[in-house]
Write a structure and sequence with these properties.
Layout (H helix, E strand, L loop, with lengths): L22 H4 L4 H4 L5 E10 L2 E10 L1 H7 L9 H4 L3 H4 L1 H13 L3 E7 L4 E8 L5 E8 L1 H23 L3 E5 L6 E4 L1 H7 L3 H4 L12 H9 L7 E8 L5 E13 L2 E10 L1 H19 L5 H16 L3 E7 L5 E7 L1 H7 L8 E3 L8 H4 L4 E3 L21 E8 L2 E9 L7 H90 L5 H14 L1 H33 L8 E3 L1 H16 L3 E7 L5 E3 L1 H20 L7 E9 L3 E8 L6 H4 L19 H12 L3 E5 L6 E8 L5 H4 L2
Parallel strand pairs: 18-20
Antiparallel strand pairs: 1-2, 1-5, 3-4, 4-5, 6-7, 6-10, 8-9, 9-10, 11-12, 11-16, 12-13, 14-15, 15-16, 17-19, 20-21, 21-23, 22-23
Length: about 725
């Protein structure tokens, strides 16, 4: 309020006389001015009663006033005549006029002028006692805008407070939390008053400078999305997505943030991604490695630092310690963990999950009365949670985590149960696959040994031939050497007599006769020949035994090494020679091949299977002519291939598609297990990612062809 323009005169019925012109006459001198002030103008004379203003007489108005109020020809009339109901319709307006007239203190106010429903900004003042002037401006548009804004703010406030989404109002300059809704207080765990004393940096894990920079970058009218992490009152961290927009409230720009808790969604995404990753690596990782990786993930989603898995045996009484998390082994536990087995009745409280067949949580592990303690070197437990994995109403495993900074809750149970159940199927498949591979290896080895057994008689015959020859040569050489030794002794006797000047003619004649009797020249030449033939026999035996040794070799690590397929074929033909030598003509066409990465012992087994299969097919034909087997090798840009063809009876079309099935055989009962070709298929297709096929040409017989992927080897390997 400003000071009065004039001195107030109270309880005066009529204005005092003055040597100056009355105000009503003065008005005539500024009529042109009031038309151009751009606002409504009205001057009035105060009507007093008992010394107080009670009414006003219009002295002057301008055109703007008439336009604003729709009042014309009011000069000389009282306001009470123009507005008979002014005391009831606009009591505040009449009251303010009376107060200004009585006190002389100017007043400015806003009101809605009912006749025209126009909002007016009115200024009242007393130019001198007994007179009142009003300057009026039309503010209808402004008031309408304010009303709209107010309604908008009211709606925003109503939505803000009642909405189920977490919401906050933030100062973009400082990051101060100006306000939050009820949902936010329940979610964060702080009260409204506590949150309104905090800054964004108290809950956002970003550095303070990054937070302010991010808030200042928010544009009005644009929803800016942000992903990050928010801290709760209990110290836990949640994944959030924040939709932010800059709005104006009470004339101040603020950031309106809508916070979505996406922790569950992120965890589901993480679990799904983890499952996919586990499926991708399951083929090359061991069960123990897969379990350890899984426990690392369980620690991650619960904030734990210890993780372990036990398998539960079929009788539900023994726990077999299988794996620990990486962090447990590295930083937490130095106790013996290899191949530990626990009878259920002697296991600690962590085994309650098996005994009670449900998830157990111990958030105060040191305070448990029935705990049995931990082995020396074991990490000190503060909290633990153990989840049973149940299949077909039996517990097959338990997964445990420990030492989360805060208490474990139902959310932790939900996530670890989900993880354990997702992963168990992969682990179980891996275990089944391992058992299957062990069985397959046993079958392959049995098949190999069976084939060696079938070839044993022939191989023994192959070895006996050179052995008998060596023995015969040895007897001959021994006899020849005796003759040579006898002649040498005679020569020495003659030399002794010559040295003693004793006649030796008779002795020389006797030795000459013995030389003729022994056929000394033939004797001397036959000994090197016999030795050479014995050497060849030894080489033959060495070749057979080396081939047998190479064939019998088992690659326990199933590792692939650079290998020459041609050498495998040559050694295999040595082993199988006794089977085909008398009834089959062999045609071997081995082209120059690069080394191929493979398991040599298994590829040799395939080659022997196919050759023996062809030999048996030809023998089963009961033919009078000689059978024929052709072995070829060749290389293309992508593969290294080998074909083994025969002119046997071939394979009937109706059974051709079953030829690689396990235990399927065309041989008589007791003469074949039906494993040779199925094992060959498994070795080539499943283990080496190659191909194997059979064709039966129109002219008869069968052609088996297998191919292995050609991999370019480093020069150092390819030259070995």
């Amino acid at each position: 309020m400003s000071t009065p323009l004039t001195k107030s005169y109270n309880n005066v019925a009529t204005p005092p006389t003055s040597n100056t012109l009355p105000f009503s006459q003065k008005c005539n001198h500024h009529s042109s001015f009031i038309e151009y002030i751009g606002k409504g103008y009205v001057s009035t004379q105060v009507v007093y009663a008992d010394g107080r203003a009670v009414d006003f007489i219009y002295l002057e108005t301008n055109t703007a006033y008439e336009t604003l109020t729709a009042l014309k020809n009011v000069v000389g009339k009282k306001i009470s005549e123009v507005f008979p109901d002014i005391a009831t319709r606009h009591p505040e307006f009449l009251g303010k006029m009376i107060i200004v007239a009585d006190t002389g203190i100017p007043e400015r106010f806003e009101m809605c002028f009912k006749p025209s429903e126009t909002w007016l900004d009115t200024t009242l003042y007393c130019p001198e006692h007994g007179y009142l002037i009003a300057i009026i401006d039309d503010i209808t548009k402004r008031k309408e805008a304010e009303t709209v804004l107010k309604k908008s703010e009211e709606r925003f406030r109503a939505v803000f407070n009642s909405h189920s989404a977490i919401q906050a109002l933030l100062d973009p300059e400082t990051g101060k939390i100006l306000d939050v809704n009820e949902k936010a207080t329940g979610w964060y765990g702080w009260s409204l008053d506590e949150l309104k004393q905090m800054y964004t940096r108290d809950i956002n894990t970003l550095p303070p400078d990054a937070i302010i920079s991010s808030l200042k970058s928010v544009d009005a009218g644009v929803h800016n999305t942000f992903s990050g992490y928010h801290r709760m009152a209990d110290g836990s961290i949640r994944d959030v997505e924040i939709f932010r927009n800059k709005i104006e409230i009470d004339g101040k720009a603020v950031v309106h943030a809508i916070i979505h808790d996406v922790t569950d969604r992120k965890r589901y995404e993480s679990l799904n991604a983890f499952r996919i990753r586990l499926l991708q690596i399951a083929e090359t990782y061991s069960v123990e490695e897969l379990l350890s990786i899984t426990l690392d993930e369980a620690e991650k989603i619960t904030g734990s630092s210890i993780g372990f898995v036990h398998f539960v045996d079929e009788n539900q009484t023994t726990l077999n310690l299988q794996a620990w998390s990486s962090n447990t082994l590295k930083n937490m536990c130095k106790a013996e963990t290899e191949n530990r087995h626990y009878p259920l009745n002697k296991a600690g409280v962590w085994a309650d999950a098996v005994r009670e067949r449900k998830t157990i949580i111990h958030n105060d592990y040191p305070g448990l009365d029935h705990r049995k303690g931990t082995p020396e070197g074991h990490a000190q437990l503060k909290r633990e949670m153990v989840i049973p994995v149940i299949r077909n109403e039996k517990i097959v495993a338990i997964m445990g985590v420990g030492n989360k900074p805060a208490d474990y809750d139902y959310k932790d149970v939900e996530w670890v149960e989900t993880l354990a159940n997702q992963v168990w199927d992969i682990i179980a498949n891996k275990i089944t696959e391992n058992e299957k591979n062990k069985l397959a290896a046993q079958l392959q080895n049995s098949s190999k040994m069976e084939m060696i057994g079938q070839l044993a008689a022939g191989i023994a015959h192959e070895i006996n031939n050179p052995l008998n020859f060596i023995l015969l040569n040895s007897n001959n050489i021994e006899s020849d050497c005796q003759d040579l030794f006898e002649l040498v002794n005679d020569y020495r006797h003659i030399i002794e007599k010559v040295e003693a000047s004793t006649p030796v003619a008779e002795e020389i004649m006797r030795v000459r006769n013995k030389e003729r009797a022994f056929d000394i020249d033939d004797l001397i030449s036959s000994i090197p020949i016999a030795l050479k033939k014995s050497e060849q026999g030894v080489e033959r035996i060495t070749t057979i035994t080396r081939s047998m040794r190479n064939f019998s070799y088992t690659n326990s690590k199933n590792s692939f090494t650079p290998f020459d397929i041609n050498s495998a074929i040559e050694e295999t033909l040595v082993i199988a020679k006794s089977e085909y030598r008398d009834v089959i003509a062999l045609d071997v066409q081995l082209n120059s091949l690069p080394l191929v990465l493979c398991d040599p012992s298994k590829i040799s087994q395939v080659i022997l299977n196919l050759i023996i299969n062809s030999v048996h097919a030809i023998k089963s034909h009961n033919r009078s002519d000689t059978g024929r087997i052709e072995v070829k090798t060749w290389a293309s840009s992508d593969n290294i291939s080998c074909s083994i063809s025969d002119n046997g009876p071939g394979i009937a079309e109706k059974i051709r598609e079953r030829i690689f099935e396990p235990f399927f055989t065309t041989k008589e009962i007791g003469k074949g297990t039906g494993l040779g070709l199925s094992i060959s298929y498994d070795i080539i297709v499943n283990q080496h990612k190659g191909t194997i096929m059979v064709e039966c040409p129109p002219e008869g017989g069968a052609v088996f062809t297998f191919s292995l992927p050609r991999i370019v080897l480093p020069s150092a390997l390819s030259s070995e």
